[in-house]
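Notes, Module 5: Reading structure tokens.

Key idea: the token line is not a picture. It is a compressed description, and you learn to read it the same way you learned to read a sequence, by spotting repeated patterns. We will look at two proteins. The first is printed below with its tokens.
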Amino acid sequence: MTRRGWMLFAAMCVIWGIPYLLIKVAVDELSPATLVLGRTAVGAALLLPIALARGQVLPLLSRWRPLLVFAAVEICLPWLLLGHAEQRLSSSLTGLLLAAVPMVSAVLVRFGPDSDRLDARRLLGLLVGLAGVAALVGFEVGSGDVLSVVALALVAVAYAVGPLVLSRHLSDLPGLGVIAVSLSVAALAYLPAGIAEAPSRWPSGKVVLSVLGLAVICTAIAFLVFFELIAEVGPARSTVITYVNPAVALLLGVVVLNESFGVATAVGFVLVLAGSVLATSRNRAPRSEPGSARDIECVDLAQPVAEP
């Protein structure tokens, strides 16, 4: 990999490792719906003009149905549930639990129309990963946080379904246009609830910066950098960030927010990560054209595509 490729790779590992920290800070003063509105509105305002200037919006109109489904499962539903979950759970634990998204994806692919056989190695990966999730939930989650874990389970399913929608219905469309329009749709969908649940007073500076960080860095800049990463190293290598992001989320949660880190967390993290790698191992797929929606098929298997 070239020096530029390593720089882009490192940037993406950090950029998509910090959303959990920023979400945790933001939901202290904002409702999840208001947070989603702020993030999607600013992200759309930054990306939509670029997509329009490149002529990447009009080609999407004929696929408005799968585009709406993608916006719902990749942005609208998971970002709202993430906000609710992080009102109870730590940012580091949230990031670690969502490291299991590739395992959910492997199961969906196995039982989907384009079934992919679960050999012994992948089955072992699923079992190892489930053991890691069980360790994290059993030792790190309190009895009052069960609903938050359920919310994260739904997030994992949504993040696994999103790439399937992309690959089967939107793969020939420009990726930047898909993301820009999806963010715009999500912003419009959350406009009523986001405004209704907005606080009566302007939030603190750290919350405002968190929302801007999520929208500008973790969404708009993230996708522009990710497209460059794909063009530089190819879609296959770019998926490796999926396995690094949880470590970044864990480190930031412990260092910045003083979140706990115990033996169970370490063991669970290693098992989930190892299970995800084994469960998703496969022969290298043919390289697609850079910048297409297929290129972002792996986006946010660990964060709010366009997030994490």
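Here is the second protein, with the sequence above and the tokens below, as before.
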Amino acid sequence: MADDYEAVMAAAVGPLLATLDGFEQVQRRLHPPELPALRAAMKPVGQRLASGLDGIAAASPPEALRGFNDQLLAGGRSLAEAFDLFCSEAAAEQAIMQVLASMGAFTRSLEQLYPLRTFPPLGRFFVEQEFHDRLDELDPEPREGVATGVHLGGDANDRKARGGFALYVPEWWDGSAEMPLVVALHGGSGDGRGFMWSWLREARGRGFFLLAPTAQGSTWSMMGEDIDGPALRAMVELVAERWPVKRSSILLTGLSDGATYSLLTGLTEDSPFTAFAPMSGVLHPGNLERGNMQRAAGRRIYLVHGALDWMFPVETARWAAGQLREAGADLVYREIDDLSHTYARDENDRILSWFDASLALPGDGEKNKGGNET
């Protein structure tokens, strides 16, 4: 790498990684009263990113690195768009939609940057710290006939298309080993293509298939005809036909509407799911009407809720925990003191250790901070 281009990269990559980390912190701490403070914390980070991107745009990379440079610039510009959307002031009635648009741009930047993961600074971002010294093992030479990486079902050219899915298979998978499957359901107005990134880092290192479907409508079919349930089960079967899914370890998890729907559809008679981890949702009354509460007996459920949740107050989760226990569910209830109505990415570790012992990291059994478990 030429010295001048190396200097440009050094000036750009640090701010880019800091902005990626900043957005992960923002996602975890999203709470309406905290928006001004979160914006203030992000502004200096985003300003350094803008300066670094200017350097990349003006650079003359070696011929062999032109594709890398262009891809890095594209991902950086999506990240800058996310920053601009998040930090721009908006009227109260528009603020939530603007934040959601910002998070959409953030996940788009992740999609653009992930192909550059063999560049070690980005490679470390896309996997847990325990695997930072094993990056070469995570990306071996492709094996002929072995389908790994990110796969998009449905209209891959239309990010707004409904009813498709995103599937991730760790790049180091050997083509034959059986692995658990995690199925992750997005929240209202979301999509699987974006929500997949909430779990990909763990899947890449620990080793599990990750399926992130997209609802056929703007959210999951919790009212009227259940059009998403049959489609969801068909997706699971499609994955299991092509890849060796460990049938005894299929986790259904989700956020908000995805959490609510995970139990509503997952506790039906023909469900392939062996464990559930709903986060920031509610216990839908349809569970009573469909006989799901009788089928909850003995089922493994890891229920997560935030004490600061402004959409579904924590009392709804405490009531749901009581109902599930009364029904005989094998329940873990985690109430997190500083969590609002957002995804607690730092809970993934505990969920995976609880779900399947083969996915636990060393020392996971000792971790129980930042919340109350019952």
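Summary for the second protein:
- The domain at 140-373 is CATH 3.40.50.1820 (Rossmann fold).
- Residues 3-29 form the longest helix (27 residues).
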